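tokens incoming
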């Protein structure tokens, strides 16, 4: 059947379709808009929930910050336990050291006495306040104070400000003179320092300036006496000026050259002065060389030269100190000197630690640790040292020593040492020590934390 529209109906149908098409399109658009509105509302609801969660999290963070701003973080470097504020502005560490010695003396005519004792028994408290203020306090229980000795157990006790260049230190601390003297007793190659120790200035109360970098150091200070002064003693306290500088023309990993010089000027207490020294072993109280009290001293000067080199496991070190004593016109001036030289070698391949910004040697870190499958670090050394306290008719004595050393670093803070000291000669005419040549065996066990 063939269906055909006449022209009039055809035109009316077309007109109706034209009129109906926008209405259908409009209905479809309204449906889409409604769907979009529903989606937007869902997104807004989700966003509101997320904002509420973020706000809650921010509040929790603020509360956590309030709670933790005064919190303390405990840390360890494997040797010691330290405490630090969360912002790092405050730090504190309580530590110490123990050195137990024993000695056997094969004496000649002068009895030296065998025995054992605690060489050092330190309590060590140090820390930082407000980033730039350092403090340190050490007390040696092996050197207790008393009515006659004052506060002799007090070692370092100072405040230091590092916010300026150079750093400023006030209190009692080591006077900056001598490489072996300034290197901690924990890190010296031999159990006791060489005969140059006869001239090394002790800790004293004073003001010091110090600065250093990657290959040099400089320090200076003005000092009175150590804090052992007896309040009942109305004598005048001595005073002095000290300065030291070091330079490293070569400094690389396990390889360095150290050069240094120091100068000291001092007006001693009540114009009295005395130099004396033990034979590189502290168990005995005998001193083979001793000036006794030098009276009528105006002042004295000391000049020190120091040099050291490290090439992997091998190292050498030497110092020379000259002391010139000026006395009143009626007495002659005096000129004394001392020096040492030594070499050491690590059988296990380690190298001596070093701090360039202070110009001192640091602790040895074994390649392997005893107790953790390793054998630690083994070091051997030999040292020659000499001191001359005789000048013309003034006889304080001359001494020469030869020392052999063996060190076993079981960890980086535990060390066992053995030294054999041969006193080669003592030249002190008119004294019982003249011609003495004893043999001394000295051992030490130490730990620091």
């Amino acid at each position: 059947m063939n269906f055909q529209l006449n022209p009039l109906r055809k035109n009316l149908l077309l007109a109706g379709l034209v009129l109906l098409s926008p209405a259908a399109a409009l209905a479809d658009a309204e449906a889409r808009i409604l769907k979009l509105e529903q989606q937007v509302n869902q997104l807004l609801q989700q966003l509101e929930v997320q904002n509420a969660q973020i706000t809650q999290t921010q509040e929790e963070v603020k509360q956590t910050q309030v709670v933790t701003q005064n919190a303390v973080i405990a840390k360890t470097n494997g040797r010691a336990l330290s405490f630090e504020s969360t912002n790092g502005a405050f730090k504190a560490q309580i530590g110490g050291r123990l050195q137990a010695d024993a000695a056997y003396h094969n004496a000649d005519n002068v009895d030296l006495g065998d025995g054992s004792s605690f060489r050092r028994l330190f309590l060590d408290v140090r820390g930082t306040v407000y980033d730039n203020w350092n403090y340190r306090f050490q007390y040696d229980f092996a050197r207790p104070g008393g009515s006659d000795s004052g506060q002799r157990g007090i070692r370092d006790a100072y405040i230091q400000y590092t916010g300026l260049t150079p750093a400023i230190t006030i209190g009692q601390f080591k006077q900056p003179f001598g490489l072996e003297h300034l290197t901690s007793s924990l890190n010296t190659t031999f159990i006791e320092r060489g005969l140059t120790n006869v001239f090394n200035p002790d800790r004293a109360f004073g003001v010091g300036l110090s600065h250093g970098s990657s290959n040099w150091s400089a320090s200076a200070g003005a000092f009175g006496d150590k804090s052992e002064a007896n309040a009942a003693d109305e004598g005048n306290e001595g005073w002095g000026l000290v300065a030291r500088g070091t330079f490293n023309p070569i400094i690389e990993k396990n390889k360095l050259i150290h050069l240094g010089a120091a100068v000291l000027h001092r007006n001693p207490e009540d114009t009295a002065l005395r130099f004396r020294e033990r034979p590189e072993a502290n168990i005995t109280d005998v001193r083979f060389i001793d000036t006794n009290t030098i009276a009528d001293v105006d002042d004295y000067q000391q000049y020190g030269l120091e040099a050291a080199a490290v090439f992997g496991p091998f190292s050498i070190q030497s110092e020379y100190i000259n002391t010139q004593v000026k006395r009143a016109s009626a007495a002659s001036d005096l000129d004394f000197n001392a020096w040492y030289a030594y070499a050491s070698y690590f059988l296990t391949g380690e190298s001596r630690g070093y701090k360039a910004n202070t110009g001192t040697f640091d602790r040895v870190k074994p390649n392997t640790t005893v107790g953790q499958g390793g054998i630690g670090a083994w070091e051997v050394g030999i040292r020659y040292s000499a001191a001359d306290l005789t000048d013309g008719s003034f006889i304080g004595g001359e001494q020469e020593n030869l020392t052999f050393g063996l060190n076993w670093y079981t960890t980086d803070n535990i060390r066992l040492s053995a030294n054999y000291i041969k006193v080669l000669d003592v030249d002190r005419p008119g004294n019982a020590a003249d011609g003495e040549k004893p043999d001394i065996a000295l051992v030490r066990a130490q730990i620091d934390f």
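note: Helices lie at 7-68, 179-182.
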